Amino acid sequence: CVVGIGYVGMAYAVLLAQNNIVYAVDIDMEKLNLLIQRKTVMHETGLRKALSKIPEDNIIVSVNPTLAYKK
After folding, report:
1. Per-residue burial over 6-26, b = 16 or more CB atoms within 10 Å of its CB, e = otherwise
2. Is the separation of the CB atoms in 41 and 34 below 8 Å?
3. Which of 6, 38, 45, 52 could serve as a FRET partner for 23 with CA atoms 20 to 30 Å apart?
4. Taking residues 2-25, what's their average pLDDT?
5. Which are the contacts of 48, defined by CB distance < 8 A and separation ≥ 6?
């Protein structure tokens, strides 16, 4: 579970989701919608390419931390 999909959280979520199922939790629905679309507003080298290669089911987004913590 990665809480907060800012610069650090996004990088961690993408790294972990390459081989794991990751719950990404944030209060900002805009960030979560971008993540669902495999997009980001951040300009980290290689982040967008890595994000595009993650299997669709490996990132689960939520604004509800309780759901993510139970998993």
Report:
1. eeebbbbbbebbeeeebbbbb
2. yes
3. 45
4. 94
5. 39, 40
Q: What pLDDT is attached to residue 71? A: 63
Which residue reads 């669709």 in tokens? 56
Whether the pLDDT of residue 56 is over 90: the answer is no
Hey, what are 65's tokens? 């931390």
Give the closest residue to 61 by CA, choosing from 52, 53, 47, 71.
71
The structure tokens listed for 62 are: 């939520």
Tokens matching residue 27: 């209060």
How far apart are alpha carbons 3 and 49 in whole angstroms? 22
State the helix-helix crossing angle for 29-36 and 7-17, rounded to 10 degrees: 30
